[in-house]
Write a structure and sequence with these properties.
Distance between the termini: 60 Å
Strand content: 15-25%
Largest sheet: 8 strands, mixed
Radius of gyration: 31 Å
Shape: elongated
Helix content: 25-40%
Structural class: alpha+beta
Number of helices: 14
Amino acid sequence: IVSDAGQDQNVKFEDFGNAVRRVREDFHADIDIDLTPLRPDERGFSKQHVAVGTIRYDVQGSDVDIGVLVYFKPAMTGDEPVDVLNYKSLNPAFPHESTADQFYDEAQWEAYRALGYHAAFQAFHFLDGKSSSTQGPASISKVFSDVRNAWYPTPADFDEKMVALNQRFVALERRLAAEAPLAFVQEIYPELAVVEPSALKAPDRASDRRCVHLIAEMIQLIEDTWLIAEFERYYNHPFMVGWINAFNRWTRAKTFRQWWPFLSPLYSSGMRQFAESRFHVPRPADPTTVATAALHLRFSDEAALDLPESLLKPSRSPTEAVTRRFYMECSLDGLNDWLTVGLFDVKIERSNNGKAQALSWTEDDFHMRPGMWNAGFGTAFLAKLIKEKQLGDANPLTNIAKLTVTMPGSGSGHVLRSAGNRRERNDLFLFYTSLGFKLRPSIGSATGPSAVILDRPM
């Protein structure tokens, strides 16, 4: 417990900052604390009297040796006793009057004493009325754990943001109750098997289709909560426990997990990564989880579901010298039909002995169904190709020894320099290099002076 009673009229936390710096230099311990709630607003009032942080003693950063720091700073929040508020109105510098004044009068002394008593009582309010007979380290640790939960760092306007999100959650729950197939509701609330077993039934394909728009709305609420409430930073906030539990129910539902790989590309990649990490939804971009995610890929010479040329990239031009076209198809457990999510035009070059094969393509020969871009299917496809060294399920190409991809340039001798174009090009380059492709030194080519060629031996 730290009480910082130095004069700090502008609330710069200079003394505390120096202490944190010296603790790190001399003891190799880090202090992580958000002091924002102690900063006064334009009226001179702070949000709270105390801030709680974490002391990390482990220099390796493994978070196995930590402590709780309870930091008090003289602050007015507006809930103090009336005499303290009166003293503040008569003495605007309070509670940061000059420490050069060592001769307090009775009113000044009582104002500081009452403020300190009030601040301590508010900080440990959860102990009010509880017995103090229990002693020992366990009891002390429990107090510090409770005070950490009570004053967990909270973003600005958190209450207002959560009220709006709560209203949307209630509205969506009402829609689920009114519109969702009973089998889907059963997946979210398995307790219904005990409460109302006679009303339950097995999921059916028609029910799955009716759930699509509800699941899309559920994912949208997850994304909005992730964005508005800074979920990635505050997901373990005590106020967020209910949201974590609710989202865990949604994302554990079988129907939700079946449709996640198809619907999640409609939302931001940051939210998808967070959901994959915290809620363990299927992650098609990771080839090691394709099987466990109930996602299956296959490659055939004919599309299982029509993929019109008009749905491909609008700027696509016919590919020259295409030897073979493969369709990328996806299915999920429980769904027997295959969905064509993309196609792949590949040029085949055989070695002199006719066995070893080299596959080459340009980036424009790799097409994903619009709405499925950045879903991870491309990564899963290439990982499968690299691992198995063959392409295609029926009449496959085997003995693949080398892969070559060309990222076409502008065709005019220069690379487009807008931030978006450069970022897209950089992302694409890193995508291939992360899979083992290496840059081939090249100056000019038939594909354009600014083309980039990458090779990967198998």
